[in-house]
Amino acid sequence: MTQITLLDGGMGQELVHRAGDRPTPLWSTQVMVDHPGMVAGVHRDFAAAGATIATANTYAIHHDRLEGTALEGKFDELHGLALAEARDVGGVGRVAGAIGPLGASYRADLMPTHDEAVAKFAEVARAIGPHVDLIICETVVSLAQTRAVLEGAQAAGKPIWIAFSVSDDDGSVLRSGEPLADGVALAGAAQAVMANCSAPEVIKAALDVLATSGKPYGAYANGFESISDGFLEAKPTVDALKMRRDFTPDLYADHAMRWVDHGATIIGGCCEVSPAHIAEIASRLRAAGHTIV
């Protein structure tokens, strides 16, 4: 059968559930300071569930997100913490460095100028590049972000994967309203193309587009009811987002196996995808005769 790369699941939401702290705009980053070792524990649980890539908790560590907070000026220190906790995991084949959006997730309107964005993405890439096996540019919502993050990520000197976040109404369209196909056409520097942090029901339409790239492709969806208007405001916190009541490991694995049947060779989970969800996918993959690599 097929060799499948199994990514881990949603680090940020898993930390929210485990920490029990009041969410802040820096929830997944603040946890590394307030609860040392918790991120490593999440990594270990995803590895035990069957994930073969640990995605370091570097997604939201950008200067513009730290400005005006108690963590301002701790850019290098926070990257060091995230990378150390990702490496403190046995049984995972590779460590990926995550590069998330500038400003906030899902907000194409917050992108700075191209040159400024490239410089900011490149600074992250240089910080994490020596310590990871690959870079994943995550939750890419616009063509401008695609151009800038791929250019900046090359500063890491490591293979680059890109994950586009698509409309929850139409998987062939980026959250900016631009065609996903145009984003894929710009992804020449990426070794793999994916859809992430989108509703699982629209992923198949995204895969139809990603398949045209000629590159390995895949998906890792979220378990939110929707991306609420409250989360699109300035400095949002995750209490503006709600998990779907039907988002069980069985339901998510049903979707994931359909993606594999559709040609996806990279599968995982984003927000609200827990180790239990990843374990169910791993079990289904093995039962179907696939090899997890």
TrEMBL record:
Q: Molecular function (GO) terms listed?
A: methyltransferase activity; zinc ion binding
The Hcy-binding domain covers which part of the protein? 1-285
Stored Pfam families:
S-methyl_trans (PF02574)
Keywords linked to the UniProt accession: Metal-binding, Methyltransferase, Transferase, Zinc
Cross-referenced Gene3D superfamilies: Homocysteine-binding-like domain
Return one Gene Ontology term, BP aspect.
methylation
Which InterPro entries does the record cross-reference, listed alphabetically? BHMT-like, HCY_dom, HCY_dom_sf
**Which positions in this protein are listed as binding Zn(2+)?**
197, 270-271
The cofactor required is: Zn(2+)
**What does the record's cofactor remark say about binding?**
Binds 1 zinc ion per subunit.
Task: Show the PANTHER family listed in the entry.
Answer: SLR1189 PROTEIN
Q: What protein name does the entry list?
A: Putative homocysteine S-methyltransferase
Annotated source species: Octadecabacter antarcticus 307
Q: What is the lineage of its organism?
A: Bacteria, Pseudomonadati, Pseudomonadota, Alphaproteobacteria, Rhodobacterales
